[in-house]
Amino acid sequence: MNQPNYKKHFLLLSVLLILLFFANISLGSVAIPFQDIFRVLIGENSSKESWEIIILNFRIPKAITAILVGSGLSVSGLLMQTLFRNPLAGPFVLGISSGASLGVALLLLGSSLFGGFLLSETFTHWSLPIAASLGAFLVLSAVIITANSVRNTMSILIIGLMFGSFASAIISVLSYFSEATKLQQFLFWSFGSLGNLSWNELLVFGVFYVIAMCGIFPILKSLNSLLLGENYAKSLGIPIQKSRNIILIITSLLTGVITAFSGPIAFVGLAVPHLARMFFTTSNHKILVPATAVIGAIVLLICDSIAQLPTSEYTLPINAITSLFGAPIVIWLLIRKKKLFV
Q: How distant, in Å, are the alpha carbons of 12, 127, 131, 257, 294 from that of 118?
């Protein structure tokens, strides 16, 4: 039986991704001609030195961040939907994002309770990513320990949701007692942002992203087997416990590092895997994983371009745009297909 050929699909998506990357770089509060953008990209000088600084130090890192965040969250969502065989599972169901938010909340809002020590003495440009990473790591450790103590995969899903609720409750208490300025700072972080990363931060982000993505290749066969149930996967000789732990670690690493560097960004991880299945009409993860990554990058570049409010100096919160984009897609899929498939 001949395998379907998806070369045209990937070629189309690759061209669209490149076009959106250049479109994203061209948008911003400062209007820069396309010829000057092209000159900077090929290493030549632009008409104004300030344009060169804007493109190299702000717009290109932001566009690359959008690609990494969009693809990482989408692949995490695909892994969670496959592991739990639940079409509404996403990268945040394990409570990793809530753990990252708790780390940032303790840093920003906890300063009111700890006499300002945390914020005034230890706050640097790296403090937010480090605090978020520590919070995500603590929840990840708890989830991994729990996963090895229970046999039912659905129990892990429920326990992850409980960890998320627990972290949210602590954040609510911290918010209640915090000062208005600190609360506003935390609120702005929770809106999500793709534009605050320097090249050094982007390099650290990229290293973790590549490590997590490389970990997916050895478990592609396990992912396809899990779609038919754990008992069927066991009959094929798939090590369920090991595969489950690897999936949890990869998802937690991707979600944790993304939340640490860009804040919580909703709906991309939930909606994009369904778009990939609809466009490629396959459940083979050798096709779905790269397809979901590319479509996720495209979706977040589109959302970021909309958030820029072209011809305006204002920028909307990226988290609001992804929710406005993702919620109608899920509703439309439910109406059109009557049922969501994994």
A: 49, 10, 11, 22, 39
Tell me how crowded residue 268 is: count the other CB atoms within 10 A of its CB.
31
Mean pLDDT of all residues belonging to the chain: 83
Chain centroid to CA 82: 17
Ordered domains of the chain (ranges, CATH): 6-338 (1.10.3470.10)
CA atoms within 13 A on the CB side of 246: 17
Tokens coding 61: 């890192």
Whether residue 87 is predicted with pLDDT greater than 60 in this model: the reply is yes
pTM of the predicted protein model = 0.86
Residue 86 pLDDT level (bands cut at 50, 70, 90): confident
